[in-house]
């Protein structure tokens, strides 16, 4: 399908806008994916706060060049591009899950910021915990010393109370 010069300009501007807003970009080949599978994939991507779009490779390549991204050899065949606006590992997980058990769907590569990533690096990102899990882990690390201090300060009083209780129970049974 041929696009007019104006439509191509609009598409390129839209790609550049998505690139500006995103923290990471991942590219997937989607050979032999039907629209039902693509829609299910899009829904999983939306759950991470990201977006995925089918792009015209030449126009997307122009947008990448205009925004100063390094060279990209992975924009050769059909491309499904994911834009991570918040949760980079979450989007990488969705992309990695889509490739499991399907030889026709492959991660081509991507970018974090303007850093070029290989498909293996994207899969390594998928092994990282998601943003909510990382926040919970950080909260646990921060609160652990404070709770340990509280336990240490309360231990002498708790021990004294236990001894007094045991002594009172012993005195009560002797009487």
Low-confidence stretches: none
Number of domains: 2
Report the portion of residues in β strands: 15-25%
CATH architecture of the largest domain: 2-Layer Sandwich
CATH topology of the largest domain: Alpha-Beta Plaits
Strand count, sense and barrel status of the largest sheet are:
5 strands, antiparallel
CATH superfamily of the largest domain, please?
Ribosomal protein L10, N-terminal RNA-binding domain
N- and C-termini, Cα separation:
99 Å
Average pLDDT over all residues: 84
Walk me through this protein's architecture.
- This protein is an alpha+beta fold and 175 residues long.
- The protein has a 5-stranded antiparallel sheet with strand order 2-3-1-4-5, with helices on both faces.
- The protein starts with a helix and ends with a helix.
- The protein contains 6 helices and 5 strands; from the N terminus they run αβαβαβαββαα.
């Amino acid at each position: 399908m041929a696009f007019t010069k104006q439509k191509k300009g609009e598409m390129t501007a839209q790609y550049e806008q998505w690139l500006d807003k995103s923290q990471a970009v991942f590219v997937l080949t989607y050979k032999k994916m039907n629209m039902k599978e693509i829609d299910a994939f899009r829904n999983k991507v939306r759950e991470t706060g990201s977006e995925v779009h089918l792009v015209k490779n030449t126009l997307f390549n122009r947008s990448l060049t205009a925004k100063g991204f390094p060279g990209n050899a992975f924009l050769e065949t059909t491309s499904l591009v994911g834009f991570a606006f918040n949760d980079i590992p979450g989007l990488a997980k969705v992309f990695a899950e889509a490739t499991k058990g399907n030889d026709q769907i492959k991660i081509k590569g991507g970018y974090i910021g303007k850093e070029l990533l290989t498909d293996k690096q994207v899969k390594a990102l998928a092994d990282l915990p998601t943003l909510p899990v990382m926040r919970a882990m950080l909260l646990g690390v921060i609160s652990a010393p404070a709770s340990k201090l509280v336990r240490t300060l309360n231990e002498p009083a708790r021990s004294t109370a236990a001894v007094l209780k045991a002594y009172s129970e012993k005195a009560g049974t002797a009487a």
